[in-house]
Amino acid sequence: MNELYPLKFKTIFKDKIWGGDKIKTILGKDFSPLPNCGETWEISAVPGNLSLVKNGFLEGNNIEELIEVYMGDLVGDKIFEQFGVEFPLLIKFIDAKEILSVQVHPDDEMARKIYGGCGKTEMWYILDAEKNAKIISGFSKEVNKEMFLEHLQNKKLKDILNIENAAAGDVFFIPAGRIHATGAGICLAEIQQTSDTTYRIYDWDRVDENGISRELHLESALDVMDYKHYDNYKTIYQSELNKSSNIVECPYFTTNIIHLTKEISPDYNLIDSFVIYICVEGKMKIEYGKNSVDMIKGETILIPAILKNITLKPETETKLLEVYVF
After folding, report:
1. What does the angle CA 76 – CA 79 – CA 85 come to, to the nearest 5 degrees?
2. Which residues contact 93 (CB under 8 A, 6 or more apart)?
3. How far apart are CA 42 and CA 50, in angstroms?
4. Fewer Cβ atoms within 10 Å of its own Cβ: the N or the C terminal residue of the chain?
């Protein structure tokens, strides 16, 4: 069997009513066939949207086929035992020219009851934000179901939502059950559980070109929503040059940031997991053995679990999101 190597996947483009042009202008993906490309799925195991390899001898194989063949060598033994051929994470870029709907996602327990799948906890790393761009995350005060419905019905939902200023480099962790929305003028990287379940609560009275509103899922949302108020919704983190600096740690994924100005060699011998790199700034090479693969801003690469010793060589100042399951 041929040896595994850092894997690139074909981008899956998603047309959205709120999409803009930052997928092209900020991330350099000017091959999008869609007029309103609001999302790209960079690594996906969602049924009907299986990522296909685009580099090396495995080109054309989908991610489930890879796991069937390589099992723990690709994803890690513990992860293969837990998830089988389903890859546990979905990696996206999102470009919101307009504000997205106010929405919420179920947790694992509720998702299993309803449709047998997993829940959806996610995080956002802001790549670009226009002046006065906002993120909605959670409530600005403690509410209950009755208070929430009253504000929704009276079109005063904004009065109880926590609204934050957003800037490049900001991080927002969105656990299942937290009400949220991406504001207009924001481009971000999203790391989440493999799930496409979203309960849309309010869509700002928006209609499509045929005058039709998108479907809402209020009853489902009410069952899964966390009505509590929290002190902090924006994730505060420190980044140290040329080291892996933690941003988010949860049962579903760990995300770190690596700000590279010189060559480093991460040691993954203690991690029984694949590693995903998301390049959010700059360009670099990933060296493994006697081989290497190039990486530029807007690219996502999957490092198989069996590749424990690699070298990251920046060609310009580079920032990576480093993601694995621990």
Report:
1. 100
2. 23, 27, 29, 39, 40, 42, 127, 187, 188, 189, 190, 298
3. 10
4. N
H-state helical runs in 116-269: 145-153, 218-224
Same domain, 228 and 301: no
Q: How many CB atoms lie within 10 A of CB 316?
A: 12
DSSP run (H or E) holding 65: helix 63-70
Residues 216 and 265 in one domain: no
Annotated catalytic residue 200:
yes
* 131 located within any domain: yes
Whole-angstrom Cα distance, residue 96 to residue 94? 6
- What is the spatial order of strands in the sheet that 89-96 belongs to? 12-15, 37-43, 89-96, 186-193, 122-129, 171-174, 234-235
Please tell me whether residues 11 and 67 are part of one structural domain.
yes
Task: Name the catalytic one among 178, 200, 206, 214.
Answer: 200
Q: How far apart are CA 28 and CA 287, in angstroms?
A: 23
**pTM of the predicted model over 0.70:** yes
pLDDT in tens, 29-88: 988 778 889 999 999 999 999 999 999 999 999 999 999 999 999 999 999 999 999 999
Tracing tokens 């981008």 back to the chain, one arrives at 11
